[in-house]
Amino acid sequence: MFNSLSGRFLILTTIFVMLAEVLIFVPSVARFRESYLLTRLERAQIASLAALATEDVDPALEEELLLNAGVYNVVLRRDEARQLMLSSPLPSEVETTYDLRDATAFELIVDALTTMVQPHSELVRVIGSPSREAGLQIEVTMHTAELRTAMVDYGLRILALSAVISVLTAFLLFLAVRRLLVRPIKGVVGHMQRYADAPEDAGRIIRPTATVRELREAEDALAKMQTELTQALRQKERLAQLGGAVARVSHDLRNILTSAQLFTDRIETSEDPIVSRLAPKLVNSIARAVSLCESTLAFGRAEEPAPVLTMVNLAAVVDEVLEAEHAAIGDADISLAAEVPPHMRLRADPEQLHRILSNLVRNARQALIGTNAPGEITVRGHTGDDHWIIEVADNGPGLPPKARENLFKPFQGGVRKGGSGLGLAIVSELVRGHGGRLDLKETGDAGTTFIIRLPMGAVEGEQR
Predict the structure, then answer these.
(1) In whole angstroms, what is the distance from residue 76 CA to residue 86 CA?
(2) Residues 163, 18: Cα–Cα separation, whole Å
(3) Can you tell me where the transmembrane regions are (predicted)?
(4) What is the rounded CA–CA span in Å between residue 5 and residue 453?
(5) For site-directed labelling of 27, which of 37, 96, 267, 282 has its Cα 20 to 30 A away?
(6) CA separation, residue 250 to residues 282, 285, 318 (Å)
(7) Residue 191 scores a pLDDT above 50
(8) CA 428-432-437 angle, 5° bins
């Protein structure tokens, strides 16, 4: 119980209430002592009135009056003259004098604590003002034994009452905390446990119901997180299914392309100059398709294979990509340009670099075709301080807001109607595999530019 939130709250509440009662206890005891002494002064004043009523006070009556007042003598000051009204032998010398007329609260507290901790009784003189203006000053002499006993008894009663109030207050707060905080928190924990058993089930997502603001914020945050996680798990499941389908399709497609590859071997021996010029490009395209099928890329199910890094001539790869895109452009008014130094070499996997640039150029071409306006796609390459930098730019209409928000996310960052949004996700993954970074440099009415940064440092797995 004491390891729970409500149990610890119960203990802390009891401690704090007791601390508050202790702070109240000290001035209460000081006030009790002051009232006790003022009562003795009033009794002594009443006893002195009997002495004023007659000239000769019988010794027995005087002793009884002093006994009832609880003092040894009474001195009354009237008209600037001090008069001993009642007296009896003192058992010892007076040790301390207390003047209640001008005592401050601090002095009363200190005197009270001194009286309580005093190990023995002492004879004291108490000075005060007579009630009902019956004189200028009244003095009595008394022992502190009865005063100390009364103060201790009063203090014990106060402490006992404080303990009862503390326990009762803590218990009520304990019940309130369990009702207002602990029970809702346990409800949230229960929702989390049930959701963890089947996170794909949207019916187990928490529905915020708390009335306490902080708990409501926690429930809202949990509901948002569970909703996003459920959607991500469903997306992962769909990607896994897609991966299985791609694996099966790639198996059959590989066999078809392998047969086609056998025919291209014969085409290479043709003496037709046009066929001789186009045959190597056809062979390379089919070989690349076979390699892609053999890698069995299943996005969302399996990671891309690690790149096999070699020094690659960027201009040659860019020319090959742009030449392949020329055929896809057809009659569209789109121009392709390469601004790459002819001898620029960078460290990359040639096949994956070709796929990276092909995806980016294809996306740009599809965006420009959709505008039905003249367009231009430019691939630039240059060397930075510690990176090779490749830019793919177009003068198209720019990316819509939704595409910008979900950039590089599969099935969410598509721009074209019916597009899957896998292109940029694949490109981003391939670039990260090289230790680089793909960023959207700019997009807007003037066009869109993607920038690729590949590190110059040696990367593990590089072939030398």
Answers:
(1) 9
(2) 7
(3) 9-30, 154-177
(4) 52
(5) 96
(6) 19, 16, 26
(7) yes
(8) 75
- In the block, tokens 């121009």 appear at 335
What is the spatial order of strands in the sheet that 334-339 belongs to?
334-339, 375-383, 387-394, 447-455, 437-444
* Axis-axis angle for helices 350-369, 314-329 (nearest 10): 40
At residue 429 the predicted structure's pLDDT band, cuts being 50, 70 and 90, is: confident
Q: Which residues pair with 440 in a beta bridge?
A: 450
Give the phi and the psi of residue 211 in degrees, each rounded to 5: -100, -20
pLDDT one-digit tens code per residue, 97-154: 999 888 888 888 888 888 888 878 889 999 988 877 667 888 999 988 888 989 989 8
Pairing of strands 96-99, 123-128: parallel
List the structure tokens of 387: 């990176």
pLDDT digits (tens, 9 = 90+) for 11-42: 777 787 777 777 788 888 899 999 999 998 88
CB 29 within 8 A of CB 147: no
b/e sequence 46-65, b meaning 16+ C-beta within 10 Å: ebbeebeeeeebeeeebeeb
Taking the complete model, does pTM exceed 0.90, yes or no?
A: no
Query: In this structure, are residues 29 and 205 in contact, taking their beta carbons and an 8 Å threshold?
Result: no
- What the block records as the tokens of 278 is 């186009």
Q: Give yes or no for a contact between 36 and 70, defined as CB atoms under 8 angstroms apart.
A: no
Contact yes or no for 382/341 (Cβ under 8 A): yes
Residues paired with 444 in a beta bridge: 447
What the chain holds in terms of domains, given with CATH numbers, is: 5-169 (no CATH), 303-455 (3.30.565.10)
